[in-house]
Amino acid sequence: MIIVIIGSQWGDEGKGKVVDLLADRFDIVSRYQGGHNAGHSVYVGDQAFVLRLLPSGIIHEGSTCVLGNGMVIDPIAFFEEVDQMTDKGISITPERLKVSSRAHLIMPYHRALDHTSEERLGNEKIGTTLRGIGPTYEDKAGRRGIRVADALVPEVLKQRIERNLEEANRVIVLYGREPLRSDEIFEEISALAERLRPFVCETSHFFAQAKKENKKILLEGAQATLLDVDHGTYPFVTSSNPTAGGASVGAGIPPHHITGVLGIVRTYMTRVGEGPFPSEMLDAEEDTANLIRERGNEFGSVTKRPRRCGWFDAVATRYAAELNGFDSVALTKIDVLDALDEIKVCVGYKIDGERVDTFPAVSQDLRQIEPVYETLEGWKSDTVGITNIDDLPTKAREYVDFLSKSIGVEIGLISTGPERDQTIILKDSVMEGWFN
Ligand code: IMP
Fold first, then answer.
1. CA of 39 to the centre of ligand 1 (A)
2. How far apart are CA 58 and CA 30, in angstroms?
3. Which residues of 306-316 are buried (b: 16+ CB within 10 A; e: fewer)?
4. Residue 120 pLDDT exceeds 90
5. Beta-ladder partners of 342
6. How much distance in Å is there from the Cα of 8 to the middle of ligand 1?
7. Helix/strand/coil for 190
8. Is 12 known to be catalytic?
9. For residue 216, which of 27, 84, 156, 433 sits 20 to 30 Å off, Cα-Cα?
């Protein structure tokens, strides 16, 4: 069984908890795109883990974790995270952590270029995480990137750094920054590459073997559908493909081996960074946005940036469901809405007075959207920690059913709090089967 798990919005939908719940049912958990721009929070008892590069499965001693070829890996951040996890008592060995030899490395000059690129864009900036993600994918597409396998051969690494840095330094100096030194970068990265060597693996072969042995594999998307470089709110997107198709390419697994796709849908929307957000709560709804931000702890788990908050957008989420082919949905953070009198759902868009029910491609259109809302009554009672669907207030159940109908996919799991056991799994759902 191979399941892909994907955020349906602009990220931070609560994937970390759901992956963590599923992880001990799976033998292997793998990431397939992105890098340490992600930040998954997982709470186990009184311990909080923030995972950036490592798949959430790393917390379960029984899972093997893979960093797939579609990822961009900052070796400095990688070992920081490995060391932090080790300090928290998690055993990280090459037997249980595999890094693709084909993944690309984020180099110190990529971080510098992420800064200069945002500076150049000024008011039109993307609001990136400044981790060097975009520039590393640019080098990958430009066929000058440095892959993990290249870094293991010192002469190749040295020559690539010198060649790429010559170009990068021109831009870095143009923006008034100190040029970087290739000997220093080489020294630092070659030492880290040596430390990385035991973890390096031909991961697509590893997956092919695992499939033959009927192992259960979970492919964990980072960022989310609306941040996908092809399908998201371009250009306000990340530089990789979090959507289901990206899982096949980025893990090196044939598409027809994938058994199912699980969407993570939050009961409201958030976005970090710039870019269009049709159902955003603007000034008139600032109090509601603040309430949701506080109750939902909607601050970046890595960058601590406050997230922009908005009402559930059925148009955007239906688009995500179609695009990824969600077989089932995990609905998260229902408890965050407990205090609201009324809950709005964006059921359509108007552009220049015309009703539009599909998600437009042009970011200019997205900015001009007038959302069409339907208002539902709030349930005004505590849902925190509920584990049985029959215990959910009627109005909360109506809200769940409304969302499920509006996106056209079953809701198989409802999360009622950050802890593992604050979860409802719906009987006879596709999702229930994945838990068995
Ligand atoms: P980058 O991935 O750092 O290039 O940033 C591009 C866009 O994706 C920015 O708007 C970021 O805020 C957003 N982004 C990147 N990673 C995440 C994430 O894990 N959660 C939410 N937004 C993200």
1. 10
2. 10
3. ebbbbbbbbbb
4. yes
5. 377
6. 14
7. helix
8. yes
9. 84
* Residue at token pair 């963590």: 20
Q: How confident is the model at residue 364 (pLDDT cuts 50, 70, 90)?
A: confident
Torsion (CA) 236, 114, 85, 272 in degrees, nearest 10? -30
Angle in degrees, 0-180, between the axes of helices 154-174 and 108-121, rounded to the nearest 10 = 20
Nearest to 15 by CA among 220, 293, 309, 298: 220
Helix (H, G, I), strand (E, B) or coil at 208: helix
Give dist(CA 48, CA 40) in Å, integer: 10
CA 375–ligand 1 middle distance (angstroms): 30
The b-or-e profile of 170-181 (16+ CB within 10 A means b, else e) is: ebbeeeeeeebe
Which atom of ligand 1 lies closest to the CA of 240?
A: 2
Does residue 42 surpass a pLDDT of 80? no
Backbone angles phi, psi at 45, to 5 degrees: 60, -130
* Alpha-carbon dihedral angle through residues 216, 217, 218, 219, given to the nearest 10 degrees: -160
Q: Is the CB of 114 under 6 A from ligand 1?
A: no
0.90 exceeded by the pTM? yes
Q: What are 180's two structure tokens?
A: 């970087």
Query: Residue 286 burial by CB count (10 A; 0-12/13-18/19+): exposed, middle or buried?
Result: exposed
Q: Is 40 a catalytic residue?
A: yes
Contact 363, 236 (CB under 8 A): yes
Is the separation of the CB atoms in 310 and 245 below 8 Å?
A: no
- 7 close to ligand 1 (CB < 6 Angstrom): no
φ, ψ at 100 (rounded to 5°): -65, 135
* 113 CB within 6 A, ligand 1: no
Ligand 1 centre distance from Cα of residue 387 (Å): 32
Contact 336, 18 (CB under 8 A): no
Q: Is 39 in the pocket of ligand 1 (CB under 6 A)?
A: yes
Tokens of 409: 């996919």
The catalytic residue among 20, 27, 36, 40 is 40
Phi, psi of 354, deg, nearest 5: -90, 135
- pLDDT > 90: percent of the chain: 88
Atom of ligand 1 nearest to the CA of 12: 20
The domains located in the chain, with CATH, are 2-100+214-261 (3.40.440.10), 104-196 (1.10.300.10), 264-435 (3.90.170.10)
Atom 1 of ligand 1, nearest CA residue? 128
Alpha-carbon distance 142 to 155, whole Å? 21
pLDDT over threshold 90, residue 68 = yes
